[in-house]
Amino acid sequence: MSTKVIVVNGPNLGRLGIRQPDVYGRQDLEELRRLCTGWGAELGLEVEVRQTDDESEMVHWMHRAADEKTPIVMNPAAFTHYSYALADAAHMVGDAGLPLMEVHISNPSARDEFRKRSVISPVATGTITGLGFFGYKLALEAVAHIVNG
Ligand code: DQA
C-alpha cells in the first residue's frame, strides 16, 4: 500500500501563474497538482495537493494529519512568517513522528526583511527554498526517504 502524503499550500498560492510570475513562475496550482501527483506516484506515494487561504483550515489539516499519521509537505506562504498557530499545529505533526517538509518556491531570505524569518522552520523536518516547483519534488523525495528508510 502506498503512503499518503498531503501537500498543503497556504494563502495566495491559488493564484500561482498570475501572481508575481517573475517570482513564482507561470505555472499554476493545477500544474503543481499534476506534477506532485506524478512525482509521488514514481516514489510510491499517494499525493493529495491542497490549497487554502484560511489559517484555521490549515491548522485543522495538521490536526487530522497527526491523528491519521499522514506526512506533510507544506508551503505555508505568508503564514510562514507569523503564524504561531500553524507552527504549534506543525509541531504536533512532528510529535506524531511524521515528517513535515517546508517548501518555498522563491528564496524568502533573498527578499523582503519580513520574509527572512520562518516560524515554521524550527518545527519542520527540513526546509527547501528557492528552487521553484522542483522544491516540492525534493520534499517528496525526502518524505519517501524518511518513511521508507
Ligand atoms: C512563499 C514565500 C512567502 O514569503 C510568500 O508569502 C508566499 C510564497 C514561496 O513559496 O516562495 O506566499 O512561501
Structure in words:
With about 150 residues, the chain is an alpha/beta fold. It has 5 helices and 5 strands, in the order βααβαβαββα. It has helices at about 20-25, 30-45, 55-70, 85-95, 135-149; strands at about 5-10, 45-50, 70-75, 100-105, 125-130. A 5-stranded parallel beta sheet has the order 2-1-3-4-5, sandwiched between helices. It binds 1,3,4-trihydroxy-5-OXO-cyclohexanecarboxylic acid. 1,3,4-trihydroxy-5-OXO-cyclohexanecarboxylic acid (DQA) binds near residues 12 and 105.
Keywords for this entry:
binds 1,3,4-trihydroxy-5-OXO-cyclohexanecarboxylic acid; 149 residues; alpha/beta; 5-stranded parallel sheet; 5 helices; globular; 3-dehydroquinate dehydratase activity
